Amino acid sequence: MQNIKGISVALLSPMTNHTANGGEKLLGNASSIKRRPDGRVYISGQMQRHALFSAIERLNLEDEDRGDTYVSNGDGTTNQIEKDLRADMGGFMHPSQGSYSGRRTAPVSATFAVATEPSEVGRDLLIRIKQNTNEESKQKQALATNEFSQDDEMQMSFHLDATALSVSKAFTYEDERHIKTEYVKHVDNSERQRRARLFLEATRFLTDYANQARNATTGEPQKALIVLDTRLSRKAARYFDMSKAEQENLKAELKARGATYFFGDDTTTDGPSVHEAYQAALDAIDSLFDPTDGADPVPFEEFAEQADA
Hints:
Number of strands: 14
Largest sheet: 8 strands, antiparallel
Shape: globular
Order of helices and strands: EEEEHHEEEEEEEEHHEHEHH
Number of helices: 7
Mean pLDDT: 89
Strand content: 25-35%
Distance between the termini: 39 Å
Radius of gyration: 23 Å
Low-confidence stretches: none
Helix content: 10-25%
């Protein structure tokens, strides 16, 4: 597909006996799992983005075309859009580096992951046994409990604004009036496509919830809808909440505007699996919409100096 403007991914992922996103500690050491007022557990958008960029980092490291690109740590994001994939796709805020060049809105966004039904929450007892029985030992025996959720079907979605991927905007003002907008590209088109494929593939390898929950929780999808869109739309994010009629109307709407969608379901052999849907979508990414009309890439540092001048 040519001139893709947006990539939307809606997923259903089963999670069992998980604490994918722990909440605040209650009553001392009693930690709780995050849940909405309706009793459904959820994973915050921040944690979803963390899991996504961890997956992007692993996939980029395995890619022989990665060059000198990398994913910076979340507490040290640079403004090197040419190299730092988190800076490009996740945006940054560097107020001390100037009024304009120090911030970038993220092309990648994520919804909360939310259970499709009210959750059954239990509590796990944790014990730290005192090994040293010497009375002078400062080690103490301790008891703590952690909440966990029994079985959830987690719904989540991710979106890439392909028009802003590796692209910045420059605004021209005269007499306090905005009279012109220019688009500047920081990497070539083949690298933009590579990053779009990294984003898409990373949404199927979400595993880094374990860093916080210390269990082998995975967000890898059981069902997936992938949309390569000709418009910036996030309507597909509601796909698994829609009625059958609404789903059919969405598919008709996507076809009418030339978008392409792929559906994968691992629970049946009648139709593509999740793997097959992802592979078909990855193969279909031929080009992204280029708001610079084919202009040569400009290093971000050079762009920022001109914008601040």
